[in-house]
Design a protein that fits this description.
With 150 residues, this protein is α/β, with parallel strands linked by helices. The protein is 47% helix and 16% strand.
Length: 150
């Protein structure tokens, strides 16, 4: 089992939670980004730097993640792709992506994107806060326990 992180937009507190969890659970953690990242020195934690470009990190994760792995991403198209491949995925707020809810979220994302394209102000997500950190940590613990049994 590996944990793959879409690291370009992953909040720093989530990365810190993941570093601790990887060490505690003895699980390999791979952060994928289009720029170099500073990570703790550990045989379990690594980075994969991809070329700059649209969806380069997403494509690298899609190509490498396998059933039994966990992907952490706020990118709904990436989540949809890995879930379709049988990979477990969560967002940095701790929400588990499923085959059912990721399709709904993808439709909503596309709808909001079309509104923005028409000039409508749609706003953004709420600020990342302590409740989000706790929800992520709790969901991560549940998933690590479940995936370790597979």
């Amino acid at each position: 089992m590996k944990i793959w992180v879409d690291a370009d937009a992953c909040p720093k507190p989530v990365k810190q939670i993941l570093y601790r969890a990887a060490e505690r659970a003895r699980v390999e953690l791979v952060l994928v980004a289009n720029q170099a990242l500073a990570v703790p020195r550990s045989p379990l934690i690594s980075t994969r730097t991809v070329a700059s470009g649209l969806d380069a990190a997403d494509n690298a994760i899609i190509d490498c993640a396998a059933a039994g792995d966990l992907v952490v991403t706020a990118d709904i198209p990436l989540a949809a792709a890995v879930v379709a491949n049988g990979v477990t995925a969560i967002n940095p707020r701790g929400e588990l992506y499923t085959a059912e809810n990721v399709r709904q979220q993808l439709s909503m994302r596309d709808f909001l994107d079309s509104l923005r394209g028409a000039g409508v102000q749609t706003g953004g997500p709420p600020a990342f806060d302590q409740r989000d950190r706790q929800a992520f940590a709790n969901q991560l613990d549940r998933l690590l326990a479940r995936l370790a049994r597979l």
